[in-house]
Write a sequence for this structure.
């Protein structure tokens, strides 16, 4: 019945596309977790090696002006819905952690079921006519699969994951459990399966110090389970059209790894946490290499487009905390982290994961929201290409729709960047990108304009905003709000009108 549904859906929903029906590729989206744009060699990383991801860039296109969210759940909501996260619902998610209370014995199974039923009943409702990312591919007759942090990454359940458009899913239903890499069990299409050697209800979650011995937490590492499942899925569906989405935990902390990578195990001057973190990034890169090798071995490399990106900006899981919302003015009002003394184990980020940008995850500055995006499709995307096209997570839905040959649902904020990928004229672009932030009580919501201007909301109640010309100051060192008050007022009206705005797609 499932396959009949795809055939019928394809017949009714195929629209005009840059890709002819015979050219429709398999689509793989690898979605890193808290991977700063500066952690990849192709974006300037000098210490950690990422040869497989860098090969994607060498053989495809690298975006230099691409935006995620500032936090996990809203970024994933934006990706799944094709809407910017200033829309109503962008920051509404279920509360994580309930399964851990049951697994630790803090509540009984009966109490768990009672609370879980209440949580389901109160969860943000899904409209009958809402179309999610996975469904876009389903409508075109694709087999869809998701591996890793399922749904938006908070507490979910099988029926909800399926509603998002996934024919097959494997991973975590709970965001808090996903902070550990050694879960006693995971979920596969609604069925629980156990992981050998793992018995910690907290899934082997480490401390923020990251000084636990390598391999602590259990015996079966979640990412090894996922990569095995991914490769098996590709093999099974190599003769069909598929859309595979891999929202990995890597390199989200607290840091945990089965073994240190030999390149980093004996580094002098590095803390154990830094060695672990570098090994986590390297494992992510190795898994990308395994996926690419499998595509080539199966002879479907040329008919598969691979995307690599991250949900939000960089986070420090191996060094001092508390600087996520800093902006770096040249006059010394805040610590100048571009000074070499701040790039040491003792003072700050040895890897410079934000790539010199101000801010980290949770911040409305570029380090919190500007993310890598790389796309590779042999014979269709030119090698070693770069683009400064201003795009965002929510643009992936329209791009996917055009790739698989179906119409984008009406009312979405998403704009396809497939023309840019294929070196064709990009006729439709955003005037502005909106990135919302309900996390920080002081705001840090941002509006990025196509003309290079960016407005950052520092404190809405006090009417405090900052203005940057990121076309020349992407590191946001120069606040120009006092010099261009008229520009601030214009952008402020646009930004505030988009926060908690109605969804035109429903």
């Amino acid at each position: 019945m499932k396959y009949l549904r795809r055939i019928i859906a394809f017949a009714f929903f195929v629209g005009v596309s840059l890709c002819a029906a015979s050219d429709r590729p398999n689509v793989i989206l690898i979605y890193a977790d808290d991977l700063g744009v500066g952690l990849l060699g192709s974006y300037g990383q000098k210490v950690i090696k990422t040869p497989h991801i860098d090969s994607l860039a060498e053989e495809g296109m690298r975006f230099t002006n691409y935006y995620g969210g500032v936090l996990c759940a809203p970024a994933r909501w934006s990706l799944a819905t094709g809407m910017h996260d200033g829309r109503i619902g962008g920051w509404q998610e279920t509360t994580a952690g309930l399964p851990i209370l049951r697994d630790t014995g803090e509540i009984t199974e009966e109490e768990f079921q009672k609370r879980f039923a209440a949580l389901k009943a109160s969860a943000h409702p899904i409209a009958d006519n809402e179309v999610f990312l996975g469904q876009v591919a389903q409508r075109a007759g694709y087999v869809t699969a998701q591996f890793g942090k399922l749904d938006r990454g908070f507490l979910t359940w099988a029926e909800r994951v399926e509603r998002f458009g996934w024919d097959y899913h494997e991973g975590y239903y709970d965001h808090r459990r996903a902070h550990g890499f050694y879960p006693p069990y995971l979920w596969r299409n609604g069925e629980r399966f156990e992981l050998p050697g793992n018995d910690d209800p907290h899934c082997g979650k480490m401390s923020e110090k990251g000084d636990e011995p390598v391999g602590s937490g259990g015996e079966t590492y979640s990412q090894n389970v996922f990569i095995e499942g991914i490769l098996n899925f590709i093999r099974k569906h190599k003769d069909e059209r598929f859309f595979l989405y891999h929202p990995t935990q890597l390199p989200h902390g607290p840091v945990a790894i089965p073994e240190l990578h030999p390149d980093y195990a004996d580094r002098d001057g590095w803390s154990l946490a830094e060695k672990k973190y570098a090994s986590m990034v390297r494992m992510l890169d190795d898994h990308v290499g395994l996926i690419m090798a499998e595509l080539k071995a199966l002879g479907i490399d040329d008919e598969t487009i691979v995307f690599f990106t991250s949900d939000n900006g960089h986070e420090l899981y191996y060094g001092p905390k508390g600087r996520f919302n800093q902006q770096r003015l040249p006059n010394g009002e805040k610590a100048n982290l571009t000074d070499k003394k701040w790039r040491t184990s003792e003072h700050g980020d040895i890897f410079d994961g934000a790539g010199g940008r101000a801010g980290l995850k949770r911040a409305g500055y570029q380090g919190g929201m500007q993310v890598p995006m790389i796309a590779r499709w042999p014979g269709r995307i030119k090698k070693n290409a770069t683009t400064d096209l201003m795009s965002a997570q929510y643009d992936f839905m329209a791009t996917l729709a055009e790739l698989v040959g179906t119409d984008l649902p009406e009312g979405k904020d998403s704009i396809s960047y497939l023309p840019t990928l294929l070196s064709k004229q990009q006729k439709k672009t955003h005037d502005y990108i909106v990135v919302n932030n309900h996390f920080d009580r002081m705001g840090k919501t941002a509006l990025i304009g196509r003309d290079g201007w960016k407005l950052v909301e520092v404190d809405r109640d006090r009417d405090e905003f900052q203005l940057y010309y990121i076309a020349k100051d992407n590191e946001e060192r120069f606040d120009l709000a006092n010099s261009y008050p008229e520009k601030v007022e214009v952008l402020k009206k646009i930004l505030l009108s988009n926060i908690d705005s109605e969804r035109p797609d429903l």
About this structure: The longest strand covers residues 26-32. Residues 2-498 form a domain with the Alkaline Phosphatase, subunit A fold (CATH 3.40.720.10).
